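Q: What residues go here?
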């Protein structure tokens, strides 16, 4: 059982037991969630947006995904619920004055504090590094810590002053149970929006149909009026009248229609002898509408032979 050099192997070297489960470093996991985009895995930089499930993204990465969904990306299952740019909200974040960024550790020979975050809570001052729970408002996009929401109870945003409800709060990078609750709430909102849209369309169609019927009824003449109109044009008043000069004169008067009401006729100034001058001046055939020789421009083409 000896090996070269007289060494004796031990039991743990010969017998292989079950593999130990690799534990993920909590600091590294938190940094991946709070400092990197969930879609592109690049470092978060302004403008930063959040979806209805509380995940953080770079806005550029979301726009590129929406423009070309067929392209191969490593984490497309994370953004399957995002249908358009309206499904994400741009966050109104508060910068951390203690954050120096990558300029502090360019050479890599300095200690880098993993708990130091780029953004903080504007009310309490807690750093947004994953150790504390943070919310964002769907109305305005402002971000606050859970402690600020509990200690300062109000229905107005602490940062911008917009009113909000408790349902507008969305947990950022929450646990699995919290994400499931957010997903259910998201599905309920979308179903409500669909039903409201369908009901609005049906109401609009009903209103348009009613308006069309009213217009059609207003355009159509009643039966009695149409009969009287045709009788007046034909000279029949519904009663027999004796022939004579008086009746013929009356019938001729009824048959004559004004010049302006005849369909297809052209109006002229001569036919408006009984009209006033102001009424005649509205037409182009009036003398006031015609230009004099002085008003007519003299068009001359400029050539070098013209002096």
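A:
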């Amino acid at each position: 059982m000896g090996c070269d050099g007289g060494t004796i192997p031990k039991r743990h070297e010969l017998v292989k037991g079950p593999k130990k489960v690799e534990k993920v470093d909590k600091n590294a996991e938190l940094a991946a969630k709070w400092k990197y985009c969930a879609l592109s895995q690049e470092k978060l930089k302004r403008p930063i947006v959040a979806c209805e499930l509380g995940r953080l993204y770079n806005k550029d990465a979301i726009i590129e995904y929406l423009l070309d969904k067929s392209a191969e990306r490593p984490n497309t299952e994370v953004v399957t619920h995002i249908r358009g740019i309206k499904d994400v909200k741009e966050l109104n974040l508060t910068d951390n004055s203690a954050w120096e960024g990558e300029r502090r550790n360019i050479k890599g020979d300095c200690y880098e504090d993993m708990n130091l975050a780029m953004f903080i809570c504007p009310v309490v001052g807690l750093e947004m590094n994953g150790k504390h729970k943070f919310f964002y408002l769907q109305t305005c996009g402002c971000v606050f810590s859970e402690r600020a929401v509990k200690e300062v109870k109000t229905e107005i945003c602490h940062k911008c002053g917009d009113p909000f409800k408790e349902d507008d709060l969305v947990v950022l990078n929450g646990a699995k149970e919290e994400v499931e609750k957010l997903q259910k709430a998201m599905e309920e909102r979308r179903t409500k929006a669909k039903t409201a849209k369908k009901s609005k369309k049906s109401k609009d169609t009903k209103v348009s149909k009613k308006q069309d019927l009213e217009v059609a009824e207003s355009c159509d003449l009643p039966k009695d009026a149409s009969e009287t109109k045709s009788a007046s044009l034909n000279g029949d008043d519904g009663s027999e009248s004796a022939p004579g000069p008086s009746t013929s004169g009356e019938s001729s008067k009824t048959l004559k229609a004004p010049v302006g009401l005849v369909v297809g006729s052209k109006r002229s100034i001569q036919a408006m002898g009984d009209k006033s001058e102001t009424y005649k001046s509205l037409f182009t055939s009036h003398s006031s509408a015609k230009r004099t020789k002085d008003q007519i421009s003299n068009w001359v083409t400029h050539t070098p032979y013209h002096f």
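A: Context that may help when evaluating the design: The longest strand covers residues 134-137. Residues 221-226, 236-265 have pLDDT under 50 and may be disordered.
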